[in-house]
Protein backbone atom coordinates (compact mmCIF):
# COMPACT_ATOMS: atom_id res chain seq x y z
CA UNK A 1 0.00 0.00 0.00
CA UNK A 2 1.40 3.37 -0.95
CA UNK A 3 0.62 6.68 0.67
CA UNK A 4 -0.93 7.71 -2.67
CA UNK A 5 -3.37 5.30 -4.27
CA UNK A 6 -6.01 4.98 -6.95
CA UNK A 7 -9.47 6.15 -5.98
CA UNK A 8 -11.80 3.47 -4.64
CA UNK A 9 -14.35 2.28 -7.19
CA UNK A 10 -16.16 -0.70 -5.65
CA UNK A 11 -19.28 -0.49 -3.51
CA UNK A 12 -20.21 -2.88 -0.72
CA UNK A 13 -23.91 -3.74 -0.83
CA UNK A 14 -25.84 -5.62 1.84
CA UNK A 15 -29.37 -6.38 0.62
CA UNK A 16 -32.11 -7.64 2.95
CA UNK A 17 -29.68 -9.87 4.85
CA UNK A 18 -30.79 -12.16 7.65
CA UNK A 19 -28.15 -13.84 9.80
CA UNK A 20 -27.60 -15.06 13.33
CA UNK A 21 -26.48 -17.87 15.59
CA UNK A 22 -27.94 -21.36 15.98
CA UNK A 23 -31.69 -20.99 15.44
CA UNK A 24 -31.88 -17.32 16.39
CA UNK A 25 -31.96 -14.58 13.75
CA UNK A 26 -29.99 -11.56 15.00
CA UNK A 27 -30.02 -9.55 11.77
CA UNK A 28 -33.43 -9.23 10.15
CA UNK A 29 -33.52 -8.08 6.52
CA UNK A 30 -30.72 -5.53 6.96
CA UNK A 31 -29.75 -3.42 3.94
CA UNK A 32 -26.80 -1.02 3.80
CA UNK A 33 -24.59 0.50 1.11
CA UNK A 34 -20.96 1.49 1.62
CA UNK A 35 -20.10 3.86 -1.21
CA UNK A 36 -16.59 4.06 -2.71
CA UNK A 37 -14.29 6.62 -1.12
CA UNK A 38 -16.69 7.44 1.71
CA UNK A 39 -16.95 6.67 5.41
CA UNK A 40 -20.15 4.82 6.31
CA UNK A 41 -20.91 4.25 9.97
CA UNK A 42 -23.02 1.69 11.80
CA UNK A 43 -24.34 2.89 15.15
CA UNK A 44 -26.39 1.24 17.85
CA UNK A 45 -26.41 0.07 21.43
CA UNK A 46 -24.85 -3.17 22.66
CA UNK A 47 -26.86 -6.09 21.31
CA UNK A 48 -28.19 -4.12 18.34
CA UNK A 49 -26.57 -6.49 15.85
CA UNK A 50 -23.50 -4.47 14.83
CA UNK A 51 -20.96 -7.25 15.45
CA UNK A 52 -23.17 -9.83 13.75
CA UNK A 53 -23.39 -7.59 10.70
CA UNK A 54 -19.60 -7.32 10.53
CA UNK A 55 -19.14 -11.07 11.02
CA UNK A 56 -21.63 -11.77 8.24
CA UNK A 57 -19.96 -9.37 5.79
CA UNK A 58 -16.58 -10.99 6.53
CA UNK A 59 -17.87 -14.53 6.00
CA UNK A 60 -17.73 -15.57 9.66
CA UNK A 61 -21.52 -15.92 9.88
CA UNK A 62 -23.68 -17.58 7.23
CA UNK A 63 -26.07 -15.46 5.16
CA UNK A 64 -29.47 -17.06 5.79
CA UNK A 65 -31.32 -14.79 3.40
CA UNK A 66 -30.46 -11.82 1.22
CA UNK A 67 -27.24 -10.95 -0.59
CA UNK A 68 -23.86 -9.31 0.05
CA UNK A 69 -21.71 -8.06 -2.83
CA UNK A 70 -18.49 -6.09 -3.21
CA UNK A 71 -18.01 -4.51 -6.60
CA UNK A 72 -20.58 -6.90 -8.03
CA UNK A 73 -18.89 -10.04 -6.65
CA UNK A 74 -21.09 -12.05 -4.27
CA UNK A 75 -19.55 -12.61 -0.82
CA UNK A 76 -22.19 -15.06 0.42
CA UNK A 77 -20.58 -18.41 1.17
CA UNK A 78 -17.07 -17.10 0.48
CA UNK A 79 -14.43 -17.97 3.12
CA UNK A 80 -12.97 -15.03 5.09
CA UNK A 81 -9.47 -15.23 3.56
CA UNK A 82 -10.92 -14.90 0.05
CA UNK A 83 -13.01 -11.91 1.13
CA UNK A 84 -9.84 -10.24 2.44
CA UNK A 85 -8.04 -11.11 -0.80
CA UNK A 86 -10.82 -9.33 -2.76
CA UNK A 87 -9.74 -6.06 -1.15
CA UNK A 88 -11.52 -5.85 2.21
CA UNK A 89 -9.29 -5.14 5.21
CA UNK A 90 -10.28 -5.65 8.84
CA UNK A 91 -9.36 -3.80 12.03
CA UNK A 92 -10.90 -6.05 14.72
CA UNK A 93 -12.43 -4.97 17.99
CA UNK A 94 -10.12 -4.67 20.97
CA UNK A 95 -6.86 -3.57 19.27
CA UNK A 96 -5.80 -7.19 18.90
CA UNK A 97 -2.07 -7.55 18.36
CA UNK A 98 0.34 -10.45 18.78
CA UNK A 99 1.99 -9.39 22.07
CA UNK A 100 5.05 -11.67 21.89
CA UNK A 101 5.95 -10.50 18.40
CA UNK A 102 7.58 -7.21 17.44
CA UNK A 103 5.81 -4.38 15.68
CA UNK A 104 7.51 -5.34 12.40
CA UNK A 105 6.55 -9.01 12.82
CA UNK A 106 2.91 -8.07 13.45
CA UNK A 107 2.90 -6.14 10.19
CA UNK A 108 4.47 -9.07 8.36
CA UNK A 109 1.64 -11.28 9.63
CA UNK A 110 -0.81 -8.77 8.18
CA UNK A 111 0.85 -9.21 4.79
CA UNK A 112 0.81 -13.01 4.71
CA UNK A 113 -1.68 -13.14 1.83
CA UNK A 114 0.82 -11.32 -0.39
CA UNK A 115 3.08 -13.76 -2.22
CA UNK A 116 5.77 -11.22 -3.13
CA UNK A 117 8.12 -10.26 -0.25
CA UNK A 118 9.02 -7.02 -2.03
CA UNK A 119 5.42 -5.83 -1.89
CA UNK A 120 5.17 -6.73 1.80
CA UNK A 121 8.29 -4.64 2.48
CA UNK A 122 6.88 -1.73 0.45
CA UNK A 123 3.59 -1.84 2.36
CA UNK A 124 5.43 -1.94 5.67
CA UNK A 125 7.37 1.20 4.73
CA UNK A 126 4.08 2.82 3.71
CA UNK A 127 2.68 2.00 7.16
CA UNK A 128 5.72 3.55 8.80
CA UNK A 129 5.13 6.69 6.73
CA UNK A 130 1.54 6.88 7.99
CA UNK A 131 2.44 5.85 11.55
CA UNK A 132 5.96 7.18 12.30
CA UNK A 133 5.63 6.14 15.94
CA UNK A 134 5.45 2.52 14.82
CA UNK A 135 8.65 2.97 12.84
CA UNK A 136 10.38 4.14 16.01
CA UNK A 137 9.14 0.99 17.76
CA UNK A 138 9.51 -1.50 14.91
CA UNK A 139 11.75 -3.81 16.99
CA UNK A 140 9.68 -3.47 20.18
CA UNK A 141 7.38 -6.25 21.39
CA UNK A 142 3.77 -5.36 20.67
CA UNK A 143 2.72 -6.33 24.19
CA UNK A 144 4.81 -3.48 25.63
CA UNK A 145 3.15 -0.76 23.54
CA UNK A 146 0.73 1.79 24.97
CA UNK A 147 -2.98 1.42 24.27
CA UNK A 148 -2.84 4.06 21.56
CA UNK A 149 0.19 2.47 19.93
CA UNK A 150 -1.49 -0.94 19.93
CA UNK A 151 -4.46 0.68 18.23
CA UNK A 152 -2.16 2.13 15.56
CA UNK A 153 -0.54 -1.27 15.06
CA UNK A 154 -3.91 -2.99 14.75
CA UNK A 155 -4.97 -0.48 12.10
CA UNK A 156 -1.65 -0.72 10.24
CA UNK A 157 -1.82 -4.52 10.21
CA UNK A 158 -5.33 -4.33 8.72
CA UNK A 159 -3.94 -2.12 5.95
CA UNK A 160 -1.11 -4.51 5.06
CA UNK A 161 -3.37 -6.35 2.60
CA UNK A 162 -3.60 -3.12 0.55
CA UNK A 163 -7.41 -3.03 0.85
CA UNK A 164 -9.85 -0.83 -1.01
CA UNK A 165 -12.37 -1.05 1.83
CA UNK A 166 -11.47 -1.20 5.54
CA UNK A 167 -13.88 -2.44 8.20
CA UNK A 168 -13.27 -0.88 11.62
CA UNK A 169 -14.97 -2.76 14.47
CA UNK A 170 -15.19 -0.49 17.56
CA UNK A 171 -11.68 1.01 17.11
CA UNK A 172 -12.02 3.38 20.09
CA UNK A 173 -13.15 0.70 22.54
CA UNK A 174 -11.24 0.90 25.83
CA UNK A 175 -9.06 3.84 24.81
CA UNK A 176 -8.53 7.06 26.76
CA UNK A 177 -10.11 10.24 25.29
CA UNK A 178 -6.70 11.33 23.97
CA UNK A 179 -6.17 8.10 22.05
CA UNK A 180 -9.79 8.09 20.86
CA UNK A 181 -9.11 11.43 19.17
CA UNK A 182 -5.98 9.92 17.57
CA UNK A 183 -7.99 7.02 16.17
CA UNK A 184 -10.52 9.34 14.55
CA UNK A 185 -7.69 11.47 13.16
CA UNK A 186 -6.32 8.30 11.53
CA UNK A 187 -9.74 7.53 10.04
CA UNK A 188 -9.83 11.04 8.54
CA UNK A 189 -6.35 10.55 7.11
CA UNK A 190 -7.32 7.24 5.50
CA UNK A 191 -10.46 8.82 4.07
CA UNK A 192 -8.27 11.51 2.48
CA UNK A 193 -6.30 8.66 0.84
CA UNK A 194 -9.50 7.57 -0.97
CA UNK A 195 -10.04 4.45 1.09
CA UNK A 196 -13.60 3.26 1.59
CA UNK A 197 -14.36 2.81 5.29
CA UNK A 198 -17.09 0.96 7.17
CA UNK A 199 -16.92 2.21 10.76
CA UNK A 200 -18.78 0.39 13.53
CA UNK A 201 -18.75 2.46 16.71
CA UNK A 202 -20.52 3.46 19.91
CA UNK A 203 -18.75 6.83 20.08
CA UNK A 204 -21.66 8.65 18.48
CA UNK A 205 -20.49 12.26 18.27
CA UNK A 206 -17.03 11.70 16.80
CA UNK A 207 -18.32 9.00 14.46
CA UNK A 208 -21.01 11.26 13.03
CA UNK A 209 -18.41 14.00 12.59
CA UNK A 210 -16.10 11.83 10.46
CA UNK A 211 -18.64 9.73 8.51
CA UNK A 212 -20.55 10.67 5.35
CA UNK A 213 -23.50 8.31 5.75
CA UNK A 214 -24.81 6.33 8.67
CA UNK A 215 -27.14 3.54 9.69
CA UNK A 216 -28.64 2.96 13.11
CA UNK A 217 -29.33 -0.62 14.18
CA UNK A 218 -31.76 -1.64 16.90
CA UNK A 219 -32.75 -5.23 17.66
CA UNK A 220 -31.21 -6.42 14.41
CA UNK A 221 -33.00 -3.98 12.11
CA UNK A 222 -32.07 -0.69 10.45
CA UNK A 223 -34.22 1.91 12.20
CA UNK A 224 -32.64 5.05 10.72
CA UNK A 225 -30.35 5.86 7.81
CA UNK A 226 -29.10 8.88 5.93
CA UNK A 227 -26.42 11.52 5.68
CA UNK A 228 -24.69 11.94 9.01
CA UNK A 229 -25.57 15.64 9.02
CA UNK A 230 -29.24 14.65 9.24
CA UNK A 231 -28.60 11.99 11.88
CA UNK A 232 -26.53 14.41 13.94
CA UNK A 233 -29.32 17.00 13.97
CA UNK A 234 -32.13 14.62 14.99
CA UNK A 235 -32.60 14.96 18.79
CA UNK A 236 -35.31 12.31 18.93
CA UNK A 237 -32.98 9.78 17.33
CA UNK A 238 -30.30 10.53 19.90
CA UNK A 239 -32.75 10.14 22.78
CA UNK A 240 -34.25 6.92 21.48
CA UNK A 241 -31.14 5.02 20.40
CA UNK A 242 -28.00 6.67 21.75
CA UNK A 243 -29.07 7.63 25.27
CA UNK A 244 -28.13 11.26 24.55
CA UNK A 245 -30.44 13.97 25.91
From TrEMBL:
For this protein, the record's Gene3D superfamilies field holds: P-loop containing nucleotide triphosphate hydrolases (3.40.50.300)
Q: Which InterPro entries match?
A: AAA+_ATPase, ABC_transporter-like_ATP-bd, ABC_transporter-like_CS, BCAA_Transport_ATP-bd_LivF, P-loop_NTPase
Q: Keyword Ribosomal protein on this protein?
A: no
Output the Gene Ontology terms for molecular function. Answer: ATP binding; ATP hydrolysis activity; branched-chain amino acid transmembrane transporter activity
Which PROSITE patterns does the entry mention? Answer: ABC_TRANSPORTER_1, ABC_TRANSPORTER_2
Q: Name one Pfam family in it.
A: ABC_tran
Q: Which UniProt keywords apply?
A: Amino-acid transport, ATP-binding, Nucleotide-binding, Transport
Q: Which residues form the ABC transporter domain?
A: 9-244
Q: Which CDD domains match?
A: ABC_TM1139_LivF_branched
Q: Which domain of life is it from?
A: Bacteria
User: Which GO biological process annotations does it have?
Assistant: L-amino acid transport
| Protein family (similarity comment) | Belongs to the ABC transporter superfamily.
Q: What is this protein called?
A: High-affinity branched-chain amino acid transport ATP-binding protein LivF
Amino acid sequence: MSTTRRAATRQLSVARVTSGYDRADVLKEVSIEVRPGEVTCILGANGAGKSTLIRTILGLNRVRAGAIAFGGASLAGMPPHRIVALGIGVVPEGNRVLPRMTVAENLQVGGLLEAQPRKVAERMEAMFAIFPRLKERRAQLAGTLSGGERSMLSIARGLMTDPELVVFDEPSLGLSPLFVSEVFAIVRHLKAMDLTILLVEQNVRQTLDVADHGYVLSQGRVVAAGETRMLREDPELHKAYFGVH
